[in-house]
Amino acid sequence: MSTPEEKKAARVLIVDDEENVRNSLKRLFIDTGMEIVLAPSGKAGLEILKGNEIAVIISDQRMPEMSGADFLAFSREISPDSIRIVLTGYADVNTAIKAINEGGAYRYITKPWNDNELISTVKAAAEKYHLLRENRYLTELTRKQNEELKRWSAELEIYVQQQTIDLTNQNKKLKQLNGRLEGQLKEFISSFSDLIELRDRTVYSHSSHVAAMSKGVALETGFGQEEAEMVAVAAQLHDIGKIGVPDVILIKSPDELSAEETVEYRKHSIRGQVALAALEEFKETGLLIRHHHENFDGSGFPDGLKGENIPLGARIIAIADRFDRLVKKAAGARIEDALKKLRESLGTQFDPALYGPVEKLAREDAASLVRQAGNGEIELSLSDVAPGMVLSREVRSGTGLLLLGMGSVLNEKTIEILRKYYSVDPHRSGIFVRITGKTPRS
Ligand SMILES: [Fe+2]
Fold first, then answer.
1. Segment-wise mean pLDDT, segments of 10 residues, the chain, 442 residues
2. CA 168 to ligand 1 centroid distance, Å
C-alpha cells in the first residue's frame, strides 16, 4: 500500500489513434504540471497501465481494433482507481454513454473540445483520483489497525485467561497446602496433648473433650470461628505444662497435695505457656493456658487475676476443664451432678455468664449419646466398661493393634488386658458396646 501523502504530479494517459490529436493534447497540458503519457491504441494504452500509476485516462472513442469504451472497460481491471474520460464526436453520444456505463468513465467530452473546459475537467479528475487513493489508503490503514487491535485483544485475552488459570491453579495448590498444614497442625496439637494423658490417667480423652466444650462455649458467647478455634487449641493443650510435673503429684487430686507439692503442681500453667512461647502464632494460646486456673473471684493461680481481667478464653477453658473432670469422676446421673457442682462454684471459681452455654452444650451432648444409644451402641471410656458388656466394634490400641474383636463379651480379665494396653498405647476414641437395656450414661 503506497502512501498518498506527498502529492505527486498527476500522470495522465492519452489514448488516440491520431498522432496530431495526441500531440495537440500533449501541448495543451504542457503548463499544467501534469505528466502526459501518450498511446496510439487501446492495446498500447493497456501495456502502459500495467507498469505505471495513472491518475487520469483520456481515450478517444472511435479507434480501430479496440473502441474507447472497450479499452476503458479493460483498463478498469488493471487500474481500477484511474479516472476515465472519453473523447467523442457529437454523433457518438450513445457510445459515450456506453463508455460511462460499462467502461466506468467519469464523463465524456465532445470533439472539438474547449481547451479550458478540458483542462479543468482533467484537473478535477486528477483531484478526484487523489481523494479516492487517499480514502482507499486510509480505509486500508484503518482495516489493518483494526485487525492488529483485534489480534492484540485476542492475545491479551489469551494472556489474561492463562494468567487466570495460573492464578486459580496456584490458589488451589495453596489451599491444598494450607489444608495439609492445618491438618498436620491439628495432628501435632492432638499428639502433643496425648502426651499429657499418657501420664495423667485420671481422665480419658480429657483434652479433646475440654477442647470441644470450650469451642462450643466460645461460639455460644459470640466468638468468631477463628477465635473459637484458637480457644479450642488452647483447651486441647491447657495441661501441657504437666509434662514437667512429677508423677507422684499428678496421681493425686489437688486437695491431697502437700504445700510443697501444690507449689510444684501450680507451675504447670506457666510451664504450658512457656512450652509454646517459641511459636509466635501461639502467643495468645499461651496466654489462655497460663490463666486456665485463675478463679473468677481472684483466688486462682498463677497471677490471681479477677473477673473480666481473666481472658474470656481462659475463663471458658476453666469451666470446661472442671465440667469434664466432674462428669468423668462422679457416679450415677453424672451430667446433672456435674452441673450442680458447677453452679455451686459460679462467681467464685467460674464466670456465672458461662454456665448457660455449658449447660446447653452438656445437655446436647447427653442427647447425642441417647441418639447413639438409639443406633444400638454407645461409646464408653475404658473406666466405664463393665463385665458382661458386648463390643459393637473391634477394639484396637492407639498404634492399631487388634485387642478384641467385634462381638466379644467383656469380662474382668479382658478389661484388665485392655487397661494394660491402654496404659501404654491408648486409642483416641472410646470403646463401643451394644446397648442391651439401660444406658450407663444419660
Ligand atoms: Fe490444669
1. 61 95 93 93 96 94 90 92 87 75 78 90 92 90 91 85 87 88 77 69 70 94 93 91 83 85 92 84 91 96 95 97 80 73 95 95 74 68 85 81 83 86 77 64 34
2. 45
Centroid of ligand 1 to alpha carbon of 114 (angstroms)? 122
Q: How many CB atoms lie within 10 A of CB 376?
A: 11
Angle between helices 283-290 and 312-329 (to 10 degrees): 50
Q: What SS3 class is residue 372?
A: helix
| Residue linked to cell 466468638 | 223
301 CA from centroid of ligand 1 (Å): 10
Separation of 240 CA from ligand 1 center, angstroms? 8
User: Nearest Cα to 24, choosing from 35, 14, 33?
Assistant: 14
**Separation of 320 CA from ligand 1 center, angstroms?**
11
234 three-class SS = helix
Cα 424 to ligand 1 centroid, rounded to whole Å: 22
CATH of 11-139, one of 3.40.50.11810, 3.40.50.2300, 3.40.50.300, 3.90.1150.10: 3.40.50.2300
Distance 238 CA to ligand 1 centre (A): 6
Please tell me the distance from the alpha carbon of residue 232 to that of residue 180, in angstroms, as a whole number. Answer: 19
Q: Ligand 1 centre from 258 Cα, in Å?
A: 17
**Distance from residue 269's CA to the centre of ligand 1 (Å):** 6
Domain at 376-442: CATH architecture: Alpha-Beta Complex (3.90)
Ligand 1 center from residue 262 Cα (angstroms): 12
> How far does residue 235's CA lie from ligand 1's centre (Å)?
10
| Cβ neighbours of 98 (radius 10 Å) | 20
Output the CA 205–ligand 1 centroid distance in Å. Answer: 14
CA distance 247 to 254: 13
Please state which CATH number belongs to domain 200-374: 1.10.3210.10
- 268 CA distance to ligand 1 middle (Å): 7
Q: 0.85 exceeded by the pTM?
A: no
Domain ranges of the chain: 11-139, 200-374, 376-442
